[in-house]
Amino acid sequence: MMRSQTGFSIHSRVSVMMDPTLAEMGNHLSDAMKILESGKLESEQGKERRKLSWKDIPGPLQGDGQDVVSILQLVQNLMHGDDDQQGQRMQYVGEQGHMALLGHSLAAYISVLERERLRKLTTRILSDTTLWLCRLFRYENGSAYYHEDDREGLVKVCRLVINTHYEDYATEGFTMLSSKHPVIYQSAACRPGLGQHLCSQLALPLSCLCIVPCNTMFGSLHQMDVALLDKLIRDDRESGKVPLLLIANAGTPGAGHTDKLSRLKELCVQYNMWLHVEGVNLATLALGQVSSAVTAATKCDSMTLTPGPWLGLPAVPAVTLYRHEDPALSLAAGLTSSQPVEKLRALPLWLSLQYLGHDGILQRIKHASQLSQQLLEHLKTLASIKTSVEDELNSPVVVFRFSQDSAPSSGGSVEGYFAGERDVLDVLNRWLGEQLAQQVPLSGVDVVELEDEGTCVRFSPLMTAAALGTQENDVAALVEKLGEMIPVLSCTLRYRQDFKDEVLQQASLSYIEDLSWPGLGGVRYEPRATDLDEDKRQHSVEKINNDLLKKLMELDTDLYFSGGPEFCEEKNCIFIGMATEDLDVAELVETIVSIGREIEESGKLFENMTEVVRRGIQEAELQLQKANEEKLMEEGVLRQIPLVGPVLNWFSPVQASVKGRTFNLAEGCLDSTEPVYSVKAQMNKEASLDSPKSITKRFPGQKLFRRHGAGSDSVSDTSSVSQLEESFRETAHVQANNADEAEVPEERHVHIVEETALSDQRVPEGQETESVDTLR
Question: Among 303, 307, 340, which Cα is nearest to 143's?
């Protein structure tokens, strides 16, 4: 059963593994994990009670205790909360994950064994795991330190190096460092905060940390500048400092680039320094074909491995492999321990490695590398995508970015608008990464900020594929979504300047410059009233723009309207999202202005409604009273006598025309209806003569703000985009003029018709003239 090369099998001679209690423990743990993952432990009545209970408030410890099922139910509730949908449950960790979790339970059980038996068992577990890892990753004659925090191994290594360079450090402490300050060199491309963490854990001042810049003239922009490092080391030695340790990368956290490890090793040997290497590319050491740049890591003094994410193993420790001949110094530095319980940290990894086997481990690492190569081959076919890959044949990390340099220029030049504006491209690439991660979650892509390239999208399957279960079809789906988003990015980048120019031409709109918004940009409608104080004006701006945003969101369009980013400094704004090829920017801006003006006028109408109506009623009463007096003077006193008036009207009817009145709510006055009827008659006459030519014609299924036939050779009613935009402007202008010429539009006035004469019919006796009661 034992495999001669790696020994990946459970050793049958370990007597404690034959204990039937272990099998029972494994079954209980497996059942508990299935219950927690499925979320089916709790009944419907229990769910209702939980919704009504104060589950987030700590309660007292029960005196009689609880059973296992109740405790698991509590854990399940805390894990899942109120999420009842299956898609929001924790991801399935797989059998190898259960094996790693079983290791933690076994460690607790093994720790209660008799001391001598515990020592033998932990020694065997530790030696087996160390041997397997050293052979897997080609690190000969190495020792291993297992730790939960992936930075802890480097801290222990630094203590080992300090004890090596300062012989009396164990007794004298920091006084030994005061005369000759140690220096730790770190690449500028290392993960943020690593050097500061070292200094804080080792009680060293930050002056002991030296950040080495990356190449600026030759080679990769993410590789350490070896020539500059050599100069820095010589300068420190001349000033009496002690070059202590160099931290290099075999796969930078951002772009996955590898430093020139062979050259760095030569410098470390020359100046008696310790070389420590970390990075995701170290996983490829297990493969049959490895690049020479990564192979050089096998000659370093120490390296940190993270097999958990590489192999999809939850809760397994990180491992620091190192070479040192003095076990006493290793013990003093904390790299080894005489406590058997601390050696049990390797137990979850020991179980998982045996479960996967040598072939299973290689298959997972190889699969992740193949996914990277598959994505890289597809990205090469996309003209507007720029990749940042160190080794196209072996790199397990792919970093790409939407670039304006080669973006399609249909309808306009991208570079002419936004050449050099990196912030705009950064926010668009951030949007791209977030959309890809949301729409293809199994791809595991994320957004990364690089110093030189800016915001990029990173695909690192070695860190995500094993846990997410990423397959080739997920990469194909990622490429498909990317192909759909590139035209949207190009059009948005091109139309941003057009949108800004159109907004600046409108007196009632203010353009909002916010480079953190991935879209066309932002606007704010400014009311035309200038007689308001600052507080009332701010309230008016807020109300108008909030109502305008609601109106725009109700329109039948593919555009996305929002109140802006969460931490936007500008308030009361409307931000427009990503654009498409057929977007009519002029129509969009004109619509915003039109709706905003309509909301503003409606607001004025309702604000002044009470006072206007009161004044209007008073004026109406006066005019009706005056009309009655004129009627009395015109008809004479005899026509008002009850018995004489009807007889006189019978023999000599009064011929009088009907005089109409309109109540203008905006101005609060009564007007004659004659201009309204004359304007209507004229408009109807013109409409019957020829049909309007200035109205933007929409085709069936065509949404707002879209140009018909954009990007194709189809013929539309307008010969070009400019003619369509000019047609819309003429339409808006004619409609505005008609609204001004019509003194009393129908929808804004209340008609009050005053009857001042009688028809040929006889008026009943006792008929009185119209009073104010006819006013509604």
Answer: 303
Q: What is the pLDDT of residues 568-609, one digit of tens each?
A: 777 888 899 998 888 888 889 999 999 988 888 877 766 666
CB neighbourhood size of 313 (10 A)? 28
CA-CA-CA-CA torsion for 100, 105, 107, 111, nearest 10 degrees? Answer: 180
Residue 584 sits at the vertex; the CA angle it makes with 702 and 520, to the nearest 5 degrees, is: 120
- What is the amino acid identity at position 553? M
In sequence order, what are the residues at sequence separation of 6 or more whose Cβ sits closer than 8 angstroms to the Cβ of residue 434?
447
DSSP 528: S
Segment holding 187, helix H or strand E: strand 182-187
Beta-sheet pairing, 561-562 with 274-278: unpaired
Q: Are strands 274-278 and 302-305 parallel, antiparallel or unpaired?
A: parallel
Cβ 130 vs Cβ 144: under 8 Å: yes
- Say if residues 704 and 555 touch (Cβ distance below 8 Å): yes
Helix (H, G, I), strand (E, B) or coil at 731: helix
In whole angstroms, give the CA distance from residue 230 to residue 243.
Answer: 11
Assigned token pair, 116: 């001598």
Q: Amino acid letter at 109?
A: Y
Note the pTM of the prediction, 2 decimals.
Answer: 0.73
Q: Measure CA 6 to chain center.
A: 44
In the Cβ-directed half-sphere of 477, how many Cα atoms lie within 13 Å?
Answer: 16
Residues 669-695, buried b or exposed e (16+ Cβ, 10 A)?
Answer: ebbebeebeebeeeeeeeeeeeeeeee
**At CA 32, angle to CA 29 and CA 37, rounded to 5?**
125
What is the C-alpha to C-alpha distance for residues 558 and 578, in angstroms, rounded to an integer? 9
Interatomic CA distance for residues 196 and 180, integer angstroms: 20
Measured distance CA(344)–CA(39) in Å, rounded: 31
Residue 349 and residue 98: Cα distance in Å, rounded? 12
In this structure, what token pair is assigned to residue 329?
Answer: 């110094």
Identity of residue 38: S
d(CA 17, CA 110) in angstroms, rounded, equals: 10
Beta carbons of 636 and 654 less than 8 angstroms apart: no
Q: Cα separation of 395 and 287, whole Å?
A: 13
In angstroms, how far is the first alpha carbon of the chain from the final one?
100
pLDDT tens, 265-298?
999 999 999 999 999 999 999 998 888 889 999 9
Kind plus residue range of the DSSP H or E element containing 304: strand 302-305
Own/partner contacts of 685-694, CB < 8 Å, gap of 24 or more, are: 693/727, 694/727, 694/730, 694/731, 694/734
Q: How far apart are CA 322 and CA 330, in angstroms?
A: 10
pLDDT in tens, 488-545: 999 998 888 889 999 999 888 888 888 888 888 899 888 876 666 777 778 888 888 8
SS3 for 257?
Answer: coil
What is the longest distance spanned by two Cα atoms in the chain?
Answer: 137
